[in-house]
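User: quick one, sequence for these tokens?
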């Protein structure tokens, strides 16, 4: 990883899951989703895409899955004291998600217990906060997406019980929509860097960082990645200001319950 990528990964926490289905042979299946640590008042959680949390809910409730284990991976930044992730019980831990394409919302939060927060703090992971999201300037002109592409991540554990995850950082250029099609405006950008990736699958939930080229030492987390359009090299994200506004009850119920 580059120095800049490692520095920005100080916010990054991945959600990893190993699973086994009835009658399945061979190593357990492996899945890793991008995410970041966030704080809402005194509450901490892992922020990721809403459709990622939907996938986790489906796995928990799937009748054919007989083994399901989850860990939070917090070792992508500059501090690495252990290769072991933080255990997370998907069956009993609280979580919430919003995923509605018409509204333009796609985010979910896996809430943390105090002992999990303490373990993550040992790796000096810095949370996204409401205060930071409120102070986002309007003149950001270069953006970077951080995440774990599925094609660089193992689909199954190795015989020794390990799995590979590959972090990638992509430069983005903000794009203005031709028309506003969602209730909550989405972050829209085109990929502005060369990449050999065939797909952005696995990048969902990854943080999007914004910079101003005249102030390169300051940055803001402006959105989390939600979806992408390969033909146009375009990505769509859910702005964090919407996320905090919803958690702080700044949005009206009418906006969140639009009729079809």
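Assistant:
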């Amino acid at each position: 990883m580059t120095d800049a990528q490692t520095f920005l990964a100080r916010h990054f926490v991945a959600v990893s899951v190993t699973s086994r289905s009835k009658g399945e042979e061979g190593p357990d299946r492996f899945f890793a989703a991008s995410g970041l640590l966030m704080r809402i008042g005194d509450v901490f959680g892992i922020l990721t895409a809403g459709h990622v949390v939907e996938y986790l809910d489906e796995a928990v409730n799937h009748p054919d899955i007989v083994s399901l284990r989850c860990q939070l991976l917090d070792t992508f930044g500059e501090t690495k004291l252990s290769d072991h992730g933080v255990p997370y019980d998907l069956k009993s831990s609280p979580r919430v998600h919003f995923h509605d394409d018409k509204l333009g919302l796609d985010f979910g939060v896996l809430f943390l217990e105090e002992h999990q927060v303490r373990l993550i703090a040992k790796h000096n992971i810095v949370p996204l906060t409401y205060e930071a999201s409120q102070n986002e300037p309007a003149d950001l002109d270069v953006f970077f997406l951080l995440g774990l592409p599925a094609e660089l991540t193992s689909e199954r554990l190795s015989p020794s019980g390990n799995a590979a995850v590959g972090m990638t950082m992509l430069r983005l250029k903000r794009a203005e929509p031709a028309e506003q099609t969602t209730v909550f405006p989405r972050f829209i950008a085109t990929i502005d860097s060369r990449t050999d990736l065939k797909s952005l699958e696995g990048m969902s939930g990854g943080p999007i960082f914004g910079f101003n080229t005249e102030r390169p030492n300051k940055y803001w987390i402006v959105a989390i990645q939600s979806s992408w359009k390969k033909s146009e090299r375009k990505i769509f994200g859910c702005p964090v200001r919407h996320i905090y506004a919803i958690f702080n009850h700044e949005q009206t119920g009418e906006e969140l319950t639009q009729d079809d």
